[in-house]
């Protein structure tokens, strides 16, 4: 891997030693530079779960991706820098008390002096890595996160919003997997009408004070908890918004 090119892509010029502070700074830089997006699915562009193919897409072509792509490639970067990383299987909370199937989401475990949960591919989620073994709430501005014990040795990531209510985000195990284990669910999300990724185009990027997202033909901007929405009028404005707000031109 061309580490310098990757770090340039995420505009990172900080320390490279495998430490908790380096992980934190890399995590933030990645979230601020590489959008969560599913544009390949709507362009009929196959998603290949392979470090070389993902590097070409995210770094060379300056695109984004969804969880398998962003967390998979971020794991490869961390390994190049000397971190010990495991790709984890997660099921996303459905809102009815159940979770989606295994391998529906990829998260990362990073082992240093203590284990950390990292995730640069879940859209709006925690900004800085979370202490994996801590049961205390970990506060980020207006929200907080907590990792609770779940069934069968799995754990549940929960989020508390400003209203004070805790809600699950996803459930994950600690076993280490490889790209091939996610292949079936990756195909599902690219092709199935039952996948929410096939229903609507999304491109979303964290900012220091909020988030900017293109959902369908709507531009949504959040700053310090204040939300604004604006309709995109046509495909030309859509392409221009992708370029200006997300740095994407090769779609």
Task: Please tell me about this protein's structure.
An 8-stranded antiparallel sheet has the order 5-4-3-2-9-8-7-6, with helices on one face. It has a single domain (3-195), classed as 2-Layer Sandwich (Arylamine N-acetyltransferase fold). It contains 7 helices and 13 strands. Helix 4 (51-60) crosses helix 5. It is of the alpha+beta class. The model has no long low-confidence stretch (mean pLDDT 94). The chain has helices at 3-9, 20-33, 39-43, 51-60, 67-80, 183-191, 235-246; strands at 36-37, 84-92, 105-111, 115-118, 130-131, 138-140, 143-149, 155-160, 166-172, 202-207, 210-215, 218-223, 226-231.
What's the pLDDT, averaged over the residues?
94
Strand order of the largest sheet: 5-4-3-2-9-8-7-6
How many structural domains does the protein architecture include? Answer: 1
**Helix share of residues?**
25-40%
General form? globular
Q: Uncertain spans, ≥5 residues at pLDDT below 50?
A: none
Number of strands: 13
Largest sheet: 8 strands, antiparallel
- Which CATH class is shown? Alpha Beta
Give the DSSP E fraction (strand runs of 2 or more residues).
Answer: 25-35%
Q: How many helices does DSSP assign?
A: 7
Short description, anyone?
This protein is of the alpha+beta class. 28% of the residues lie in helices and 28% in strands. The strands form two sheets. Strands 5-4-3-2-9-8-7-6 form an eight-stranded antiparallel β-sheet, covered by helices on one side. A five-stranded antiparallel β-sheet has the order 1-10-11-12-13.
